[in-house]
């Protein structure tokens, strides 16, 4: 858990200067920022407006996935459309039924926008803005009105808040004054389960303006760290980034491994698992873009390194026992397996390297148990690459 929390903090602290959170919280909007490169695509920032809207504390939200705000009546098709947009790393907007902490459902306009690294074109964050959607009040004709027996008032069609009918004038007035509509009494509302709310052009404009303001803040504070972000992807030669959906799939594999890009000079690491960070003590920013040799040290056997290099050059799998070093320079024996991942044309696109800490165990390369673990990881990685990026594997 500490490793996950550390990654979440680094997601912001290493990209922007210290006052970015304070400045973002000065914005009045409800929004979240998520990191698709961390397993589970967690929320790494939630605005005060968002916390007020949903009724959660910051500690209850940070590190969680946005699915926690869905409920039994949230449209599954809408969720699939959002997931597809994330997989394709594109912006989208949709009306969505979500739930507050107290279980109250409400409709909102949900707009997401990818945030790109200007350095290599990777998607590093998604900004999600939430704008409450309230149905305009409508006056029904007399046949639609439900008059009380004593003529005391109109109940029924005076006002509808997306899923809920409000029967009192005071509730109508309060609903207009509250963008959230959270003050409506449950006993005075009839749930409209199958009736969705479409956002107005004004609400769509408000969401777009909010995202523009958020991105302006992020760009400003990223320039101060020289790790500039952009709302437009900057394209580079080679394949230096991974699709967000591939990141998510790889994040489900609970084993120490890295993925290197065979198409780039010096085959840099483009993905590393959380277990790898825990094993080696390095942070994500210290690993991505590096060649795996950074784990080597003074007593690493050169002949073993040569064996690995030869296997990679001939695009063959290999298993070795090699002395590596953690960030604090403590040595450990690494029972390492390397395997190639080919693209649809048969060319090697990636190499996957799986590490098992062999310190004190002295596994032999012919032993079965660690091989089973390693090969299962290789298979899972290849399935993820094949299913999400159309690659074939070897």
Topology:
Layout (H helix, E strand, L loop, with lengths): L1 H12 L6 H6 L4 E5 L8 E4 L1 H7 L3 H4 L14 H12 L4 E8 L5 E13 L5 E10 L13 E2 L6 E2 L3 E3 L2 E3 L2 H9 L23 H23 L5 E2 L13 H7 L6 E5 L7 E4 L1 H7 L3 H4 L14 H12 L4 E8 L5 E12 L5 E10 L10 H22 L5
Helix pairs in contact: 8-12
Features:
394 residues, alpha+beta, six-stranded antiparallel sheet, five-stranded antiparallel sheet, 15 strands, 23% strand
Summarize the structure.
By secondary structure, the protein is of the alpha+beta class. Helices cover about 30% and strands about 25% of the residues.
Characterization of the model:
32% of the residues lie in helices and 23% in strands. The protein has 394 residues and is an alpha+beta fold. The strands form four sheets. Strands 1, 2, 3, 4, 5 and 10 form a six-stranded antiparallel sheet that branches. It has a five-stranded antiparallel sheet with strand order 12-11-15-14-13, with helices on both faces. A two-stranded antiparallel sheet has the order 6-7. A hairpin with a 2-residue loop joins strand 8 (159-161) and strand 9. The two termini are 34 Å apart. Mean pLDDT is 78; it is low at 138-193 and 235-240.
């Amino acid at each position: 858990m500490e490793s996950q929390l550390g990654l979440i903090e680094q997601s912001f602290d290493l990209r922007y200067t210290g006052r970015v959170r304070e400045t973002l919280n000065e914005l009045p909007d409800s929004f979240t920022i998520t990191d698709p490169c961390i397993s589970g695509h967690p929320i790494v920032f939630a605005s005060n407006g968002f916390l007020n809207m949903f009724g959660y504390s910051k500690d209850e939200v940070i590190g969680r996935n946005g699915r926690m705000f869905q409920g039994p009546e949230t449209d599954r098709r809408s969720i699939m459309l959002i997931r597809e947009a994330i997989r394709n790393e594109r912006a989208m907007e949709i009306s969505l039924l979500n739930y507050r902490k107290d279980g109250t459902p409400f409709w909102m306009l949900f707009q997401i926008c990818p945030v790109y690294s200007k350095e290599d074109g990777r998607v590093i964050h998604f900004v999600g803005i939430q704008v409450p959607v309230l149905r305009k009040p409508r006056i029904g004709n007399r046949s639609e009105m439900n008059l009380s027996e004593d003529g005391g008032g109109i109940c029924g069609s005076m006002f509808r808040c997306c899923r809920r009918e409000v029967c009192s004038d005071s509730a109508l007035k309060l609903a207009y004054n509250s963008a959230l509509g959270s003050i409506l009494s449950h006993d005075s509302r009839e749930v409209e389960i199958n009736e969705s709310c479409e956002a107005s052009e004004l609400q769509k404009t408000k969401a777009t303006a909010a995202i523009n303001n958020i991105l302006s803040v992020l760009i400003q504070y990223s320039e101060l760290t020289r790790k500039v972000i952009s709302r437009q992807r900057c394209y580079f030669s080679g394949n230096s980034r991974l699709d967000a959906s591939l990141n998510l799939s790889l994040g489900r594999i609970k084993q120490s491994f890295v993925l290197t890009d065979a198409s780039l000079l010096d085959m840099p690491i483009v993905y590393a698992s959380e277990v790898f960070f825990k094993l080696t003590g390095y942070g994500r920013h210290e690993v991505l873009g590096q060649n795996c040799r950074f784990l080597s040290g003074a007593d690493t056997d050169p002949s073993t390194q040569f064996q690995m290099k030869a296997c990679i050059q001939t695009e063959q799998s290999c298993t070795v026992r090699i002395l590596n070093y953690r960030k604090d320079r403590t040595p450990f024996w690494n029972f390492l397996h390397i395997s190639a991942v080919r693209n649809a044309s048969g060319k090697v696109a990636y190499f996957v390297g799986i590490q098992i800490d062999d310190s004190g165990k002295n596994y032999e390369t012919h032993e079965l148990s660690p091989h089973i673990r390693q090969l299962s990881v290789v298979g899972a990685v290849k399935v993820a690459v094949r299913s999400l990026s159309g690659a074939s594997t070897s």
